Amino acid sequence: MLAAPTRAFLGVERSATGRAWLSRLADDRLALAIAQREGLPEIVARVLAGRGVAPEDCAAYLAPSLKTLMPDPRVVTDMEKAATRVAQAIMAGEKIAVFGDYDVDGATSSALLQRFFRAAGSELRIYIPDRIREGYGPNAPALLRLKDEGIDLVITVDCGTMAHKALGLAADAGLPSIVVDHHQAEPALPPAYALVNPNRLDDESGLGQLAAVGVAFLFVVATNRALREAGWYATRPEPDLMQWLDLVALGTICDVVPLLGLNRAFVAQGLRVMARRQNIGLAALGDVARLNGAPVPYHCGFLLGPRVNAGGRVGKADLGARLLTTEDVEEARAIAEELNVMNGERQAIEAQVLEEALTQVDERLSAARANTLPPIIIASGHGWHPGVIGIVASRLKDKYERPSLVLAFDGKGEGKGSGRSLTGVDLGRAVTAALEAGLLVNGGGHAMAAGLTLREDNLEALEAFLAKRLADDVSAASEARALKLDGALSARGATRELYELLQQAGPYGAGNAEPRFAVPSVRVVKADIVGKDHVRVILSGEDGGRIKAIAFRAATTPLGAVLMDKGSGLLHVAGRLSADDWQGRRAVQLTIEDAVPTRDAAP
């Protein structure tokens, strides 16, 4: 392992991806203090120090515990009111339904509540709206149908904060509601009996970074306490709430909320629960997704999550929640297979829409003849499948490094839009402001993602509004786009043992960046293109060590060109270590994110 400078890492001021390389750690002394105090390798200590962990906090950080990080749920506004009402409903035998969103966060939240209700001796009806026919969030026809079914109380999860009209009509019809959500709110709240959302403007809990499933877990804890205090468990066993942390981990990772504090504890402990394969639906999904080894955030975000999502995107909206709640092994296997097929269909639809969106954006940028990109990238089309626009928006965001919004318009001139943002650019708040300005039919979200509905004749005005509102934040985010590295490794030093040590500082994800390292002065001894434009290489270091590496979706990019160019000579390469367990081996490979010929780096 090699020492690492603190700034202008390895002298790289402009790489293949056009970025400077900087050290994440500003003061090497912090890493030395951690290494000495905890007996850790310096490279691991650099990772901890680079994430703001003080030497005296390392032990607690390396073992995130719900016991120490879990707050009293009652600190969330309306939590006690909501939990008391639901506990009373369970004890009185009222018929309750949960109205959940169709994404992973909504499916896991719905499944968590149903499993808790079942364990507490009550049945819970799950209702997931159809993305195409009903759209996002509670709608009056669905709520009134639930009322006609005899439902006495509805709980919305991962939606409802902006559903003023629908919840109002339901209340007028005699169906009260409780909202359990995390999306940003306006000052005016819908007429729910209780609205549990740490992103309410009057909430002081400091828990606004939770995914909806995290809020739902706190709600379950509070309701369980209310039942216990009322003597409900005097004649029946009290459920073990920790057994459902696998659902909390899956929803938290897939909703891309910051993996810090309580979220990090949820994920760390939830992954351990997931490894036990107690949820037969998740186990079946892991089998069809060919998940090998202990689950990590990557598996949740890229293997399990997309398949849970597939039903809501291109098929049956409730399949994900059904999979996560079934106790029938054969049903679990059948649903997992169906979701796997739907995920393949989703990938094909996504590829087509992405190609059209990229062509449209590039043509617009060429016509504008601007030297800089606009603050927000917007693509729209008639007939685009609304189920894939969020994924396409994410792809545009990655390519152009700008907040991106993709809209699918129907034949009546109404469009569904989905947006993805950059760190430091609050897209959800901007969309909420656009709604308040009268530019949208509906809209909302959180910092990194948002959804909306608008009339096509308002598209130009919306683009101007968002561009003006986001310009300064996007500019600041662009200035901070340098690749931040935790240190440098030799090819020989990139070992499985180091990888395992680094996992102790995880789980990694949004807000807790996976460690990134430079591997300096390596030569590409083999390079080829595999899969969908991925560049696979073998790197050889000056120390004689070799490491397998891959650059995803890089074949047609400047990064791919550098890796495939036999005349590039020695390269500095940067990326993330990942496990390589193919055919039982326990090795590592490097996921390459950037590279630069050494001749192009400052001495």
TrEMBL record:
Query: Where's the DDH domain?
Result: 95-252
Report domain RecJ OB positions: 485-594
Which key words are in the record? Exonuclease, Hydrolase, Nuclease
Q: Which residues form the DHHA1 domain?
A: 375-470
Hydrolase as a keyword of this entry, yes or no, is yes
- UniProt cross-references to Pfam families, sorted A to Z: DHH, DHHA1, RecJ_OB
Q: Which biological processes are named by the entry's GO terms?
A: DNA recombination; DNA repair
Q: Is Transmembrane helix tagged as a keyword?
A: no
A GO molecular-function term, please?
A: nucleic acid binding
What parts of the sequence cross the membrane?
none
The entry's family comment says: Belongs to the RecJ family.
Q: What is this protein called?
A: Single-stranded-DNA-specific exonuclease RecJ
